[in-house]
Design a protein that fits this description.
By secondary structure, the chain is α/β, with parallel strands linked by helices. It folds into two domains: 222 residues, Spore Coat Polysaccharide Biosynthesis Protein SpsA, Chain A (Alpha-Beta Complex); 187 residues, UDP N-Acetylglucosamine Acyltransferase, domain 1 (3 Solenoid), CATH 2.160.10.10. It has seven helices and 40 strands. The strands form ten sheets. Strands 14-17-20-23-26-29-34-37 form an eight-stranded parallel beta sheet. Strands 5-4-1-6-11-8-12 form a seven-stranded mixed beta sheet. A hairpin with a 2-residue loop joins strand 2 and strand 3. Helix 5 packs across helix 6. The radius of gyration is 24 Å and the shape is globular.
Length: 423
């Protein structure tokens, strides 16, 4: 059995984090979302994996290379035009033989799901198997109607009352080669894309055996920036013990499980409340306070008297002395200047809202700070209101108070009136 992961898309709802990387390469628990799925396939015995890449594919290839570091063999197929899921799967028609498992790269699953899919295929001889998960509100998903385990209907984003089913397509499939014939006969949808659900409907019309496999264990769909924090919390809270590969100076206090990578140093006076993950080649402290569910990437420097709470700090970023970062996602190669303060709580204690594709959306989080793209620089004593996003390469001047999103490649300077009086 071979595995295929769809990872060609950008993930526009994740901007500005996806301006420099595919959505699947945004880190959770200090490793890319995509890596969890590669490891799930591997742990289920699937060692031959094809990644269908496109947008910023170099980021994926530089990270995974040939897959040998993870104990798998990875090859790449480029989807030059992104014309839908069926089109993506069709790009591997001349690459794979026999049955294969295919999944969206922006979900996170357990290896047992892969084993269950393989077992069901071997016991039923189905042409296609869709993994189904249950949700309270299926209106934003592709809903599946069943008779036993036989799929009888697929409804994309149903209107209220259109279906009584709340089983949705989880984006994890097992196909045999027959799917390529169906894809070749699939017309474009109203969205102008080739939808894999339309290809599956063709199989159903041909009376092919198309089954659903109900799945009630962990299935995580990461679609919006704040959901990264939700999932990051889940994964870090699963840490059972500390692993220390770097240096811990005298006078450091650690409570709870902490991972410290190679060549990292935690300087005296620092206080860490696990679970916390610290990557390789980091310099933390002195007198730094790292609070629960903070994930710090590689080559990160955290200065004196900095407090970081429940945040994701990506590679090569500096957070300088006397700064506070709460419930935030900070991109790679950022410089957070001394005295930068990031607010994570509204005055009215209401949920924090963010702008996603021009719509204001309730994050469902009472505490949420900022989302910074890569290469953001802040000036000393700058301040940020909850829910602010700052784009790629933008710079925020000293003393600025930022209350709305800043696009990429902008310089923000506060306008001040100063009076100089005689004494």
């Amino acid at each position: 059995m071979k595995g295929v992961i769809l990872t060609a898309g950008e993930g526009t709802r994740m901007r500005p984090l996806t301006l420099t990387r595919p959505k699947t390469m945004v880190p959770i628990g200090c490793k890319p979302i995509l890596q969890y799925n590669v490891e799930a396939l591997r742990d289920a015995g699937v060692s031959e994996i094809t990644l269908i890449v496109g947008y910023h594919q170099e980021v994926i290839k530089n990270h995974f290379k040939d897959g040998s570091s993870l104990g798998v063999n990875i090859n790449y197929v480029t989807q030059e035009e992104r014309l839908g899921t069926a089109h993506a799967i069709g790009t591997i028609a001349n690459v794979l033989e026999g049955a294969f498992i295919i999944l969206n790269g922006d979900i996170i699953i357990e290896s047992q799901l892969i084993r269950d899919l393989i077992d069901k295929y071997r016991s039923t001889g189905a042409k296609s198997i869709l993994t189904l998960t249950q949700v309270n509100d299926p209106s934003s998903f592709g809903v599946v109607e069943l008779d036993g385990d036989k799929i009888t209907n697929l409804i994309e984003k149903p209107a209220p009352g259109e279906t009584s089913s709340n089983w949705i397509n989880a984006g994890i499939y097992l196909f045999d080669e027959d799917i390529f014939n169906a894809i070749n006969n699939t017309p474009k949808s109203l969205r102008g894309e080739y939808e894999i659900t339309d290809s599956i409907k063709i199989q159903m019309e041909r009376k092919e055996k198309v089954l659903g496999m109900l799945y009630t264990d962990k299935w995580i769909d990461v679609g919006k920036p704040w959901e990264l924090l939700n999932v990051n919390e889940q994964y870090l809270e699963g840490m059972e013990k500390s692993e220390i590969y770097g240096e811990i100076e005298d006078g450091v206090t650690i409570h709870g499980p902490v991972f410290v990578g190679e060549n990292s140093i935690i300087r005296s006076g620092s206080y860490i409340m696990g679970p916390v993950y610290i990557g390789n080649d980091c310099d933390i402290g002195p007198n730094t306070f790292l609070r629960k569910c903070t994930c710090i990437g590689n080559r990160v420097k955290i200065g004196n008297a900095v407090e970081i709470k429940n945040s994701i700090i990506m590679d090569d970023t500096n957070v300088n002395h006397l700064s506070y970062v709460g419930d935030s996602i900070i991109g790679a190669n950022c410089n957070i200047a001394a005295g930068t303060n990031i607010a994570n709580l509204r005055f009215d204690d209401g949920n924090v809202k963010l702008t996603v594709k021009k719509d204001r959306i309730d994050s469902g989080r009472r505490k949420l700070g900022v989302i910074f793209a890569d290469n953001v620089k802040t000036g000393i004593n700058s301040s940020f209101n909850p829910g602010v996003k700052v784009g790629l390469n933008s710079k925020i001047g000293a003393g600025a108070i930022i209350s709305k999103d800043i696009p990429s490649n902008k310089l923000v300077l506060p306008k001040q009136l100063q009076l100089i009086l005689d004494l």
